[in-house]
Amino acid sequence: MKENQSEKPVSDPRSPDQGGDNRVLLEKESSRIHTLCDVLHPENMQLAWQRVRANKGAAGIDNMSVGDFPAFFENHGETMMQKLRDGRYRPSPVKQCRIPKANKANGGYRTLGIPTVLDRVIQQAIAQVLSPHYEAKFSDHSYGYRPHRSAQGAVEKMHGYALDRGKNCHVVDCDLKAFFDTVDHQKLMAKLRESIADRELLGLLMKYLKAGAITVEGKFIHTPEGVPQGGPLSPLLANILLDELDSELESREHEFVRYADDFVIMCKSPRAGARILESVSRYLRTKLKLIVNTTKSKVVALKDARFLGFKIYRRKIRWTDEAKMRFKSEVKRITSRTRGVAVGVVYRDLRDYLRGALNYYMMGVTFREVRELDSWIRRRMRMFY
Buried b / exposed e across 355-367, counting CB within 10 Å, b at 16+? Predict the structure, then answer.
């Protein structure tokens, strides 16, 4: 897995924003039950490394950067691969970091777990092999972390339901309490065993679930439950577990949209919504061992619903006031005169942020708002300069 500086990063065929030029391994028959040998195939591992390198990312607990990995693998790669084949490999604990939650009004932080570069490569290799099999089975109502699907697609799907239902449209907004931190390992492994028969691969997956974490304070903690956010494998595992919820909602003939652990169900009245919320909460608690956050889950009229940073009316989609405030707050942070960085750095950071944020929210931003924001951002830059 040598570094080739002249080689362009390979696009991840699973990613909706990539061209998917490298689909050699991902176009295998989706019904095939894969093994650890498929994961460790040199072509699959090379593709995984190229994807991890393209994503960059922070170092794990070993402080090894993506740039340092090729030299490490040149010296120790064969030993690591042999340990994986023999079942002797032990994943490193993830390095925890905290980021503020998007909704600052509620306060608090979201905990991410950063694997080492080596573990990111292995997890990416596993995800590449398993994804085609599960993608063929996933529900059409699921939009999170899936190829050719996006948050915007989920919002448009919800908007379509609203148009069909007319004026009497209400939304059951379900919020799962600390989903990634409370995933039941036994339940998840039972779901994986339904499609994976290879014991070595199942064993490696369990090791990643049980690898533990190093807290911000430097203390090791065990992980008897949960799937750490931050690794390439976590989104796929989340969708595998929650696909059972999708199947249940489909069997009840609900109109719903799910993006990862965030989902909404359409209904005709507050009373109907209350019954649905109670029934779904009971199902999640008893069958999937997940808890619905009762303080955040609610039944609201369509005009009062919020989904993935957007609000939906019968005829239009707009970004929420909270999303606009977060956008302006981040622009203010980047262009703050107390940052102590060069103008070129501010331009670069601002460009990168605007590109990502506006690509995400553009479907809900009016032309008038674009002109106002453009004038405001230019004024911020003049003040900084």
Answer: eebeebbeebbee
Long-range CB contact pairs, 182-186, < 8 A, 24+: 182/225, 182/226, 182/289, 182/290, 182/291, 183/225, 183/226, 183/227, 183/237, 183/238, 183/241, 183/290, 184/225, 184/288, 184/289, 184/290, 185/209, 185/210, 185/224, 185/225
Q: Distance between alpha carbon 244 and the CA centroid of its chain, in Å?
A: 18
Residue found by looking up tokens 């608090």 in the block: 108
Distance CA 92, CA 231 (A): 12
Bridge partner list, 259: 262
Strand pairing report for 213-214 and 94-100: parallel
Alpha helices in the chain (DSSP H): 36-39, 42-55, 69-86, 117-135, 151-165, 179-182, 185-193, 199-209, 234-251, 270-283, 321-334, 343-361, 367-384
pLDDT tens digits for 51-109? Answer: 999 998 899 999 999 999 999 999 999 999 999 999 999 999 999 998 877 654 455 67
Region at 253 (left for phi over 0; alpha for psi -120 to 50; beta for the rest): left
Q: Which residue has the tokens 């003939």?
A: 253
Task: Round to whole Å and give the CA distance between 261 and 293.
Answer: 12
The position carrying tokens 């989609």 is 317
Residues 6+ apart with CB under 8 A from 301: 169, 170, 171
In this prediction the pTM is 0.85
